[in-house]
Amino acid sequence: MNEIEYLIDIALKNKNNSYSPYSNFKVSCVVKTKSGAIYKGVNIENAAYSPSLCAERSALSSAISEGEREFLYIVITGDSHDTFPCGVCRQFIREFADDKTKIIIANSIDDYQIFTIEDLLPHSFSNKDLENR
Question: How many other C-beta atoms lie within 10 A of the C-beta of residue 122?
């Protein structure tokens, strides 16, 4: 099993930790940082819907709260074929992903696609737009 397959396996197993009683749509995200640490997240729903948290922001927030800022892999898996991050999550990922960060949309260990943040959010607004202010 290669590194990507290993991370996908973790994400697929972690999906069962999703708290999604309203949509019954489970999503899991696993991130691997430049330091080698692995963080997991799942979608966490709320009866009021707007306070719900997507798996991508859950995993990234966990890593960020531990001081991580550089990500090698972001693996996303969900209950539907090719579960892509929502717009809010894409912008959240944009804040921390660089052109080397691999964003993996996985259906299984042997069925996945690899993207960059530029693929998922082209012409995006980022912290680089604020550098010369």
Answer: 8
Whether 127 and 95 have beta carbons less than 8 Å apart is answered as yes
70 catalytically annotated:
no
Catalytic residue among 56, 70, 95, 118: 56
Contact 38, 22 (CB under 8 A): no
Cα distances (angstroms) measured from residue 94 to each of 75, 81, 103, 118: 15, 23, 11, 8
Domains of the chain: 3-132 (3.40.140.10)
- 55 in a known ligand binding site: no
Confidence of residue 132 (pLDDT cuts 50, 70, 90): confident
Kindly tell me if the per-residue pLDDT of 21 is higher than 80: yes
Q: Is 131 annotated as a binding residue?
A: no
The predicted-structure confidence for 48-69, as pLDDT tens digits, reads as follows 989 999 999 999 999 999 999 9
Consult the annotation and say whether 29 binds a ligand: no
Rounded Cα distance between 95 and 23, Å, is 28
Residue 33 · residue 6 · CB < 8 Å: no
